[in-house]
Amino acid sequence: MITAEILSRARQEKRKVLTEIEAKQILGEAGITCTSTVLATSKEKAVSVSEEFGYPVVLKVSSVDITHKSDSGGVKVNLKSRVEVEEAYEAIMTSCRAYAPSADIEGVSVQPMARPGTEIIMGMIHDKSFGPVVMFGLGGVFVEVLKDVAFRIVPIEKADAVDMMEEIKGKKLLAGYRGKEPADIERLQKMLVQLSDFVNATPGIEEIDMNPVFAYSDGAMVVDARIILSEE
Amino acid sequence: MMDLFFKPKSVAIVGASGSPGKLGYVIVNNIAGSDFAGDVYPVNPKADEILGYKVYKSVTDIPGEVDLVITALPTPKMTVATLEECAKKGVKAIIIESAGFAEMGGDGKVYQQQIVDIAKKNNIRVMGPNCSGIVSRGIVTSIYPMTKKVPQGNVVLIGQSGLLAAGMASDIVENESLNISKVCSIGNKCDVNENDLLEYFGNEEDVDVISMYLETITDGRNLTRIAKKVAAKKPVIFLSGGRTEAGAKAAMSHTGSIASNAKIVEAAVKQTGMIMADDFTELKDFAKVFSTQPLPKGNRVAVITLAGSVGVNVSDLCASHGLELPKLTPETTEKLKDMFDTPVSNPIDLYFSVTKIGFTKTLETTFPEAFRDANIDAAVLILAGFEYTQEAVQKKIIQKIVKEVGKPLVVCMIVGYNKYKHVIMDEMGKELPVFPSLISGVKALSKLCEYGIRRQKLSA
Question: What range does the domain containing B452 cover?
Fold first, then answer.
């Protein structure tokens, strides 16, 4: 239900880019665990949401016009107190207004600072010939420099998700390298199938990034997400 | 519906010609030379008889029913007019061989759209335009003259390019290098595309191997769905041209910027269980291995050689292509102890056995003993083209052993005198997969093993 509402509202507003909060609500409804993320339209609200979550928290600018949140100075992490949240809020607003003076900024998204895990990227793109395609890879340098990722055509089955994880060169890192916490492979496989099932059943989505996803030994969580809708 | 193309009872050739050398003549002559037993109706307003067949002024003048129409006309406009006539006549299958359509852009595109519109409205299936249609024992519509009868084999070759498919067909038929059943070229794919043919041949019982070359993928989502079904039953060898590494330029996501066309095609191949070929030769070579050899149960290979250095090279190639070279069982090692100066290892060097009992006898006794070993799923046999190999080749010993042992084998040729080498390549190559290099043989065998293992998993 939430998904349909968000999509139709975005269509009405003639925008293709969903906010991080919208994206996480949609993925959440598809069964994919995301960090709780709440919109704060004022500094006071940002503080009260932070207190509710408990510190440390992350603040990110929430604007459909700003897609590169980090480049615009719109991301502040590891905020440990009320004062830090207030300062961060001000800093984000000042920097983003300077970066994009005409942007419509609705406020900031507030989320608890996720415990670091194995960094994963998952995503989807709609190919003209093959339709929706899903992607799996290790995050950070592995995806950015080495492009160590695997694709499959939607719909995928569990066996395809297993193959995708077998296919990447850095697969050993998932098992816990040099004493690091191993990743919950089963959970990651399930997430890929959920992502595939979701895009298979939901027309009108052009691209999805779940980047990063933090994988732990007992579960995984989407820390940042982006959804782009297709042209109508 | 597809049967009308491959098993028609009557065929009309629009643009048929009585002048040898003209395409319209070659097509009629090819049909005459095939096993086609139905009615043949050449259509040409200016002729009375071509190659003994009565000629009709137009498609609508033909008295009986027409299952299939082939057009080879000089202008797209005439082709469109012919389609209108075919619609009137009630024809349901047309192969348009003429070029000058969407591939030319401009007006050609418009004409092609007109053809699509007429076909849709009248429920007609169209193959082409800009193709060479079908080469088979039952019917040949290709524009290359056929020199021999097309075999009644178990391999189907689907190509997009008319010239290439027709050229490959002629080559295969003349040299008897592959046991083909049909070669079809689908050209601009204005209607009939790779998915139609893959589904059709997937269900044809006498087709064991499908080899396919595409320049463009019409509907990848459907291709994935169909290929997955077909590749679970029979091998589908796949070569795709025009793959690019660039991601979607306008992509706003990280995923989109990495998702190149090449990566997506590669993913589809892995997901469906198709076998990726990297060039045209592989399209044919892999088909040869798959159509003549049984599927192995695993990837454990015996390398049979007479020269140690060759064995070392093959071992390295096997390792880089995911093939294992296990030790033979103690039982086999014991049985063969008199034929080796040191206990038999893998690569299996037959030199000592040859010096002791001769080459032919070694191939008859030592080789099959090793090949039968329980640790072995398949073998690479390295042959040289010299006088001493000839007896074994003439007696078809290797063919007999492969049949008797029931495991797959590839033969690699590396040295030899031409007169002997050619006998092995060409004559033995009709029945067995014989390769002119080690890497081509090892790669083809690795594809067979990969597919064999996948099929084992599917049936488990």
Answer: 294-459
Among residues A115, A176, A165, which one has the least CA distance to residue A137? A165
Do A122 and A220 belong to one domain? yes
Contact B252 A226 (CB under 8 A): yes
Residues B397-422 have a mean pLDDT of 93
Interchain pair B258, A152: CB under 8 A:
no
Cβ separation B253–A228 shorter than 8 A: yes
Give the Cα-Cα-Cα angle A83, A88, A94 (nearest 5 degrees): 130
pLDDT score, position B244 = 73
Q: Is the CB of B218 inside 8 Å of chain A's CB atoms?
A: yes
Residue A56 has pLDDT above 80, yes or no: yes
Domain CATH for A209? 3.30.470.20
Cross-chain CB nearest to A135 (options B217, B221, B259): B259
pLDDT score recorded for residue A145: 81
The reply to whether B256 touches chain A by the CB within 8 Å rule is: yes
Q: How many CB pairs under 8 A join A and B?
A: 83
Q: In a mutagenesis test of the B interface, which of A64, A133, A192 is the best target, namely the one with the most B β-carbons within 10 Å? A: A133
Number of structural domains (chain B) is 1
Q: Which amino acid, B180?
A: I
Note whether A207 contacts B: Cβ–Cβ < 8 A: yes
Average pLDDT rounded to a whole number, residues B49-66: 96
- Distance in Å, alpha carbon of A83 to nearest chain B alpha carbon: 34
Model confidence pLDDT, tens digit, residues B422-431: 889 888 999 9
Higher pLDDT, B460 or B222: B222
Q: Is B270 on the interface with A (CB under 8 A)?
A: yes
Please check whether residues A67 and A133 belong to one and the same domain: no
DSSP of B116-161: HHHHHHHT-EEE-SS--EEEESS-B--SSPP-SPPP--SEEEEES-
| pLDDT the model gives residue B249 | 59
Over 90: is that where the pLDDT of B186 sits? yes
Does an H or E element contain A76, and which?
strand A75-79
A124 contacts B255? CB cut-off 8 A: yes
Which residues in chain A touch residue B322, judged by CB atoms under 8 angstroms apart? none
Counting every residue written for chain A, the total comes to: 232
Provide mean pLDDT across the span A6-34. 95
A153·B256 Cβ contact <8 A: no
Q: What is the pLDDT of residues A183-232, one digit of tens each?
A: 999 999 999 999 999 999 999 999 999 999 999 999 999 999 999 999 87
- Tell me how far apart the alpha carbons of residues A149 and A169 are, in angstroms, rounded to a whole number: 8
B308 touches chain A (CB under 8 A): no
Spatial separation of the C-alpha atoms in residues A221 and A191, rounded to whole Å:
10
Query: Above 80 in pLDDT, residue B191?
Result: yes
Task: Determine contact: B264 vs chain A, CB below 8 A.
Answer: yes
Same domain, A123 and A218: yes
Element (H, E) at B12: strand B10-14
**Segments forming the whole domain that contains residue A50:** 36-112
* Distance, CA of B75 to CA of B100 (rounded, Å): 7
Instruction: Read off φ and ψ for residue B333, nearest 5 degrees.
Output: -60, -40
Residue given tokens 């027709």 in the structure block? B166
Residue B404 sits in a domain whose CATH number is: 3.40.50.261
Look up the ipTM and state it.
0.92
pLDDT of residue A179: 83
Q: Do B255 and A17 touch (CB under 8 A)?
A: no
